[in-house]
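chain below, 182 aa
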Amino acid sequence: MARNHNPHKTTLKILVSVGLIATLAFASIGGLAWWAHSFTTSSVKSELAAQKIYFPPKGSPALASPEIGPYLNQYAGQELLTGPQAKAYADHFIAVHLQEVAGGQTYAKVSNASLADPSNTTLKAEAQTLFQGETLRGLLLGDAYSFWTVGYIAQICALVCFLAAGIFGVLTLRGFWHYNSL
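prediction:
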């Protein structure tokens, strides 16, 4: 007796299997991406919290400059705890103040001048101030803001993967239901 072979049912079985695998894959990748988001943002927040950096209070003369105030007023008086705050503080507070040291020269130039004239205490102090300021600025931008941004991108990826898992899950269930109705 010959078996009744239905190519439509075989194709549907393959599609349902692929859909199930895709659903599980997207859900797993979404979970990992969400974990990456949670890990990076909580790590950045705890590291920044340990530094106890606060924005100047609202109405402070430190916020009066047109190079500072428009960018930092929204954070006035707050503790610096997020990547966007770190970028604003680095670019519109530290960088502005570093421009006031040694006529806007960089640490590298001032340090070289200081090494060439070791008895010049002004150059030595300016080099130290620039080194500390540029280091803090670099850490805020390179570590805090960069990793926060990676976490934000991971969050978007997680949401897209969860959406894809939901769509594939619904399509897979519909395919399974259709397969059983044949």
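The two ends are 21 Å apart (CA to CA). Residues 54-153 form one domain.
thats it, cya
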